[in-house]
Amino acid sequence: xxxxxxxxxxxxxxxxxxxxxxxxxxxxxxxxxxxxTHALTFFEFKPPADKxxxxxxxxxxxxxxxxxxxxxxxxxxxxxxxxxxxLAWILFSATGVAIADGMVCYSHxxxxxxxxxxxxxxxxxxLILLGTFD
Length: 134
Prior knowledge:
74% helix
């Protein structure tokens, strides 16, 4: 199989992919905390008109931002310290988060593919890190 897929768990590209994913998560997290109204656009949601509801949504976006920053730093740490298996499982966890975020969007009728499209990418890199294609 390695002839068909010239990338293996030992290829530096998979670690760099994890660093890219980590940076994206941290960036999304910072954006959600500093610009919650803008971050809602990634879900294709509009901010509520009512001030009390808007304040609540902004607070929830800060929680969402903290979650994304945590996921980014978890990816950075495992990529940096060289645990391919741990990194793979964190990517699988990120797959679950992308699916869950997409399900929330799906329940509102829009925005789900913006999240679901990440799931196969995270999973593919995770499978490579586990040595599936070695």
